[in-house]
Amino acid sequence: MAQLMYRQAVAAAIAQEIERDPTVMLIGEDVGAGGGVFKATEGLFERFGPSRIWDTPISEQAIIGTAMGAAMTGIRPVAEIMFSDFLATCWDGIANEIAKMRYMTGGQVCMPLVIRCANGGGVHFGAQHSQAVENWAMAVPGLKVVAPSTPADVKGLLAAAIRDDDPVVFFEQKELYAQTGEVPEDEYVLPLGQANVLREGADLTLVALAGTVKTALETAERLAADVGQEAEVIDLRCLVPLDVQTVKISLAKTGRLVIVEENPRPLGWGAELTSILVEEAFDSLDAPIIRVTTEPIPLPSSPTLERLARPGVERTLEAIRRL
Amino acid sequence: MVQQARSATDIGVPDPEGIYREMLRLRHFEEKAYELFLDGHVNGTMHLGVGQEAVAAGAAATLRPDDCTLGTYRGHNHVIARGAALDASFGELFGREIGLCKGKGGSMHLTSVEHGHYGSYAIVGAHLPIACGTAWSAKLRGADSVTLCFFGDGTTNIGAFHEALNLAAVWKLPVVFICENNLYMEFTPIGEVTAVPRPAADRASAYGLKPIVIDGNDVEVVYAGIAEAVDRARRGEGPSLIEALTYRHKGHSRTDPARYRPEGELEDWMTRDPITRFVQRLQEAGWNASDLERIEREVIEEVGAAAERALASPPPPESELFTDVYCAGETSWRS
Question: Is A129 a catalytic residue?
Answer without folding.
Answer: yes
